């Protein structure tokens, strides 16, 4: 455990692209204030509408939202000292890391009408709760297609890379799975699911795939023309971008579409427990889910809400079988340091990164 | 203070309830025990399976241990969906290869156990408190072998006990539900059974209730064999009561008859005496009246005596009676009265004899027999009283030298108010019948025989149930 922690921290500290935590504050205008401390991995832009809507409901709350990369968030939670300021709610799409934290007892169980209404697969032990349903997509600059059809599956993507081999050399973008929790999670899921995984790894390696610290950075690179293809990008961001920039096309692979769930839990030593519970209820309530669907790019879990980024809207687009990553004990394998080093070794070898 | 009458129905119900409660209590206890065991066993198998899958995926490569955790192992663990799981893979030296570093260790640290483990490769289970929860752990040991190198690894998996507790509760709950149903049904059936069994008693009560107070014929209600003796006893008692009532009725009418006749005689004599002018004749008549009234007094005396004795014989328990002393006392008390009639009473008994009986009644019996004997004895004769043992029997004889009685009369002499036609002596006709009743009450026989050379010999034969002192 400590070995893992040390190695991860070492990785984080050594990695030049790792973001430092960004602190965002939504101060309350009331004189009698309480503070709600949220640690999350979502972009502040994406989560801000929800936080604002919550603050409108409970105006005496000053919301502090600290944004981390998902791996960073995990390590920071592990290294909280007794004297440190404690977070109240922790949210992240890195399901494996979230699960590990919950399994190891960092979450406070909570039950309410709202959490009881969640489907069984979207929560664990009444401690962690899923609140978004985000397909993992590939994003392609359609200018490179020429007369070729838009690749709808991984198989088609591989043929595209083969066809346009000189063009896409160094122009494929991936999450750096060594530093990006979500990248590791989705890559691991691919390794379990897909027969194309080996060929993908091979193709990405031979075409010198570029590694990025998060989905947004990858999309920006795509926009700049640094890369033409981005693989395993969070759907919530990608759909928003391809809406703004029509030549950027978002594809949900039709062979299967991985789905990750952002999960939230109340930190077991939350300094403001009632606010944390109140916020969690809001996040999972129809009101909160509606805000996500309409005002934010995040795709809420609830089937009943409608909006530009709602589940019903996503289902209308072409997609493969949705394969949500199950939020349960098998995620522990992903956090295993031995397994991780096996996978990373394979990865480094393919990406031609020195040991 | 009267104690509350016991109710068979209530006793049966209470006993049934106690038995059922005890049985169900034991069954529930056993069910809990079994449910816990079964749940433990099934979830132990689960973590055993998971551990085996992990062990399968540990290999040696160039003297390096490669741990490639299979997802399926954790999918197995996830069959208990709400339980946390912990795992670790450690080398023989105890250094962590992967997993949780702070898992509690089992006994595998001791060398001998480790040896045993290697050979049997059987898992070690243990319970521990880890991260503020009860956790069930399993440790499996495996020896990894490469051509010239081997290494021992321990795989430990821990799982919280929520699911097994839930399963145990579920199974236990099911059994408890079944037992409660069983309890209710059994109780209902038993209550019905008790009602059925006790129904004959109710019908018996109704049969008795429906009778008039004078009806004493036997009860014919159909009852189970257990209650039959009771009904027979009641019937026997009623027949006894019937006999007693009959006897009383007869006695009353006879007594009335016997008293009315002498009273009418006295009345007539008194009227005659009233109109008699001859002083000497009147003297005789008055003497007759006195004699008649004395006889009447005797009769009344006997009747009362009989009534007293009858009551006494019903109510008094037998005691130890010194028969010889009693006989002597009676003889002594009558000897003066006998001498007035110039008759002697002679007691010939030698041995000292005792028996079980009622001394007052026996005294009365002997007295009546003796009085009778003296009455019928001629002047200057002797009445001989004897008491002796004859084998198992005790014999008491009273012999006079009177005229004796004819064989025909012998059959009737014990009947109440019987007077022989040939008998001219004054008497009530009750004395001997009392004697007979007392003798029968003691299980003794009264035998009348002729005395030699003349007279009557009355013999009372007791079963020798007393002791000779």
Automatic annotation (TrEMBL), chain A:
Q: Which UniProt keywords apply?
A: Signal
What name goes with this protein? Answer: ABC transporter substrate-binding protein
According to the UniProt entry, where is the signal peptide? 1-20
UniProtKB/TrEMBL annotation, chain B:
- Keyword Cytoplasm among record annotations: no
Q: Does the keyword DNA repair apply?
A: no
Q: What is its EC number?
A: 2.7.13.3
Concerning PROSITE patterns, the annotation shows: HAMP, HIS_KIN
This protein's source sits in the domain of life called Bacteria
Q: Transmembrane stretches, by residue range? A: 12-31, 174-198
Keywords (A to Z) from UniProt: Kinase, Membrane, Phosphoprotein, Transferase, Transmembrane, Transmembrane helix, Two-component regulatory system
| One GO molecular-function entry | kinase activity
| Domain Histidine kinase residues, every copy | 254-466
Catalytic activity, reaction form: ATP + protein L-histidine = ADP + protein N-phospho-L-histidine
- Where does this one sit in the cell? Membrane
The identity of this protein, by name, is: histidine kinase
Ranked from the top, the taxonomy reads:
Bacteria, Pseudomonadati, Pseudomonadota, Gammaproteobacteria, Oceanospirillales
């Amino acid at each position: 455990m400590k070995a893992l922690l040390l190695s991860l921290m070492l990785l984080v500290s050594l990695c030049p692209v790792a973001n430092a935590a960004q602190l965002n504050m939504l101060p309350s205008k009331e004189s009698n204030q309480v503070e709600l401390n949220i640690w999350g991995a979502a972009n502040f832009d994406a989560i801000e509408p929800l936080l604002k809507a919550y603050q409108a409901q409970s105006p005496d709350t000053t919301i502090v939202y600290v944004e981390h990369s998902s791996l960073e968030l995990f390590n920071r939670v592990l290294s909280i000292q007794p004297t440190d300021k404690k977070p109240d709610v922790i949210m992240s799409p890195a399901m494996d890391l979230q699960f590990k934290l919950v399994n190891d007892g960092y979450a406070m169980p909570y039950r309410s009408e709202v959490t009881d209404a969640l489907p069984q697969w979207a929560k664990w032990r009444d401690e962690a709760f899923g609140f978004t349903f985000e397909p993992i997509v590939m994003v392609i600059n359609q200018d490179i297609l020429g007369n070729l059809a838009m690749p709808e599956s991984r198989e088609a993507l591989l043929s595209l890379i083969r066809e346009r081999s000189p063009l896409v050399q160094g122009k494929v973008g991936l999450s750096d799975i060594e530093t990006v929790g979500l990248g590791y999670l989705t890559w691991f899921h691919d390794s379990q699911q897909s027969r194309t995984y080996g060929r993908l790894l091979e193709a990405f390696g031979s075409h010198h795939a570029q590694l990025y610290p998060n989905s947004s950075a990858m999309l920006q690179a795509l926009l700049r023309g640094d890369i033409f293809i981005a693989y395993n990008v969070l759907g919530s961001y990608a759909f928003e971008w391809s809406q703004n920039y029509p030549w950027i096309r978002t594809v949900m692979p039709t062979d299967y579409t991985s789905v990750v769930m952002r999960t939230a839990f109340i930190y077991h030593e939350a300094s403001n427990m009632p606010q944390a519970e109140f916020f969690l209820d809001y996040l999972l309530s129809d009101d909160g889910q509606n805000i996500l669907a309409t005002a934010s790019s995040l795709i809420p879990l609830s089937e009943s809400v409608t909006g530009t980024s709602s589940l019903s809207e996503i289902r209308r687009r072409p997609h493969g079988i949705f394969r949500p990553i199950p939020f349960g004990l098998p995620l522990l394998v992903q956090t295993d340091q031995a397994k991780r080093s096996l996978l990373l070794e394979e990865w480094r070898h393919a990406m031609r990164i020195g040991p | 203070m009267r104690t509350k009458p016991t109710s068979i129905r209530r006793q049966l119900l209470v006993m049934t309830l106690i038995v059922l409660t005890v049985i169900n209590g034991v069954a529930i206890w056993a069910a809990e025990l079994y449910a816990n065991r079964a749940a433990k066993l099934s979830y132990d198998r689960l973590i055993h399976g998971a551990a085996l899958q992990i062990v399968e995926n540990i290999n040696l490569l160039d003297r390096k241990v490669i741990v490639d955790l299979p997802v399926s192992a954790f999918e197995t663990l996830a069959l208990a969906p709400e339980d946390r799981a912990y795992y670790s893979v450690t080398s023989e030296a105890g250094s962590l290869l992967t997993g949780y570093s702070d898992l509690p260790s089992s006994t595998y640290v001791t060398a001998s156990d480790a040896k045993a483990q290697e050979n049997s490769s059987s898992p070690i289970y243990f319970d521990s408190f880890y991260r503020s929860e009860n956790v069930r752990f399993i440790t499996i040991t495996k020896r990894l072998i490469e051509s010239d190198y081997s290494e021992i690894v321990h795989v430990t998996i821990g799982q919280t006990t929520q699911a097994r507790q839930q399963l145990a509760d579920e199974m236990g709950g099911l059994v408890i539900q079944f037992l409660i149903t069983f309890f209710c049904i059994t109780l209902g059936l038993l209550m019905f059974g008790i009602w059925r069994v006790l129904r004959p008693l109710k019908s018996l009560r109704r049969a008795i209730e429906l009778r008039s107070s004078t009806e004493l014929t036997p009860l014919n209600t159909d009852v189970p064999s257990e209650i039959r003796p009771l009904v027979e006893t009641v019937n026997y008692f009623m027949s006894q009561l019937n006999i007693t009532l009959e006897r009383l009725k007869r006695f009353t009418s006879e007594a009335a008859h016997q008293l009315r006749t002498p009273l009418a005689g006295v009345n007539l004599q008194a009227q005659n005496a009233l109109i008699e002018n001859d002083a000497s004749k009147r003297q005789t008549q008055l003497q007759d009246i006195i004699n008649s009234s004395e006889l009447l007094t005797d009769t009344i005396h006997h009747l009362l005596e009989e009534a007293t004795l009858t009551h006494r014989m019903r109510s008094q328990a037998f005691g130890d009676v010194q028969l010889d002393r009693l006989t002597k006392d009676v003889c002594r008390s009558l000897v003066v009265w006998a001498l007035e009639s110039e008759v002697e009473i002679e007691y010939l008994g030698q041995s000292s004899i005792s028996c079980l009986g009622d001394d007052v009644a026996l005294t009365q019996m002997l007295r009546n027999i003796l009085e009778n004997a003296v009455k019928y004895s001629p002047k200057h004769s002797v009445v001989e009283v004897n008491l002796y043992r004859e084998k198992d029997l005790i014999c008491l004889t009273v012999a006079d030298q009177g005229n004796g009685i004819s064989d025909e009369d012998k059959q009737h002499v014990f009947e109440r108010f019987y007077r022989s036609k040939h008998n001219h002596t004054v008497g009530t006709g009750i004395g001997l019948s009392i004697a007979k009743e007392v003798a029968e009450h003691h299980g003794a026989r009264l035998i009348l025989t002729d005395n030699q050379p003349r007279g009557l010999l009355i013999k009372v034969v007791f079963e020798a149930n007393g002791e000779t002192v």
